[in-house]
Amino acid sequence: MQLSLITSCGLWMPVLLCLLTAGGGYANTCTTRRCLAQMLIDRKLTTQPQRDTCTQFIYIPFMECQTIKVDTKNLRLACRLQAIVEWEDDDISWDKSIFPYDEVILPVDKVWTPEIYVSNGVSGRTQNGYRDLLAFHNSTLRHRLVMSAEINCEFNLFNYPFAEDECPVVIQAWSTQGCGTQLAIGQVDLFDSSHGDWETLGAYLHKHSEDTYFISVILKIRQQNPFVTLLLPSILLILVDMVSFALPLGGGERNCFKVTLVLSFTMFLLILNDLLPGDSECGPVIKYHFCVCLIMLVVSMLASMVFTRVAKDGGIILCCTPGGKKSKQKADQDISVIQVNNKEDDQMLKKVVDFLEDVKAKEAESDKNQIYANRLDKGFFWIYSILGTVYFIGMITVMVTHNCEINHLDFF
């Protein structure tokens, strides 16, 4: 009898040990949160939950969007997203009569977590916000994800430095077909809207399809810095060039000054070449503005040189000027007079008179050329000033008011 009882106990001992190592065994030995967490970890639930519908529902109740950097040269947006993610796993649950807790902390690497990423990013990374996640007794798990992405955006830079545009950030789960995941996002808020020359005006959530969402990040450039460093210097250089017409044509001071202005503006463009925005479907009109300003400075310099030549010789032809022909005729008259009159006193007096008359004629011719050149100079100044003022008013108006449309969702 005792032998049979011992044998029966030996047969049931492994069964009892198995029961003790199961979930109910913890109720007899340990009922703390750590024991509960260890029990859930021992289940090794590192694969996606497999349900009868074969689709895992993922809910993001809250997401924060932060703009890190806006690269106008390469037309890219760097952003950072922080999301609270919730999902259900029927295998992660416990009996509250044994473990009287509503929630427990589990290591992230010991259970399955959903994979969410920015699908239109040229580069990106998704990482866990914390080492642990929160598990509830009703099979709900809550976790925080941090996504960093660099997105290629066709910014509308036509109005630069008064540009304002949007960039879509597409959020998707790892799979949307078959035994995949179904994503739902609740709310998106903007975090830290100030970053350099650009300001984030808002981040708005849109639903493109049943499992695809995108966030429209509204960006606007701060006009102060680009206006002061790019647009204002070009306006001031043209203004200085207009005022330089107050310098006299003679002496060469004006021409040297205008040449200095052209060289200064050229160096200004070379220095700011890396700061100018890159070309896109709506390229920045400020590049054409700089080209027009350079043409205006060069035309003004050339006109000043031509007017200087006119003031000196009465024309822009470099040979056979009227002054040379006139001097030759006077020389012939002098020779003829010398041949007629042989007296030395009369000859000397005649030469002095002819010399004085020649000097007076040259002075009169020079005054005539100077008056003619001044008239041309004043006329060019008024035409240059009026056209320059009208151009700047029109260019700034176009920069501020013109709207260039770009399809930012052409990748769908």
The helicity comes to 40-55%
Following the backbone from N to C, one meets helices and strands in this order, namely HHHEEEEEEEEEEEEHHHHH
Number of strands: 12
Helix/strand/pairing category: alpha+beta
In this structure, how is the largest beta sheet organized? 7 strands, mixed
Morphology: rod-shaped
Number of helices: 8
Q: Uncertain spans, ≥5 residues at pLDDT below 50?
A: 1-28, 319-341
Structural description of this entry:
It is a single chain. With 412 residues, the protein is of the alpha+beta class. The protein has helices at residues 2-21, 23-29, 33-42, 224-243, 253-271, 286-313, 322-340, 344-401, and strands spanning 56-71, 76-88, 103-107, 116-118, 121-128, 132-136, 140-152, 164-173, 181-190, 194-195, 198-207, 213-221. Strands 1, 2, 3, 5, 6, 7 and 9 form a seven-stranded mixed beta sheet that branches. A five-stranded antiparallel beta sheet has the order 4-8-12-11-10, with no helix packed on it. Strand 11 (198-207) and strand 12 form a beta hairpin. Helix 6 (286-313) runs antiparallel to helix 8 (344-401) and helix 7 (322-340) runs antiparallel to helix 8. The longest helix is centred in the C-terminal third of the chain and has 58 residues, at 344-401. It starts with a helix and ends in an 11-residue tail after the last helix. Mean pLDDT is 80; it is low at 1-28 and 319-341.
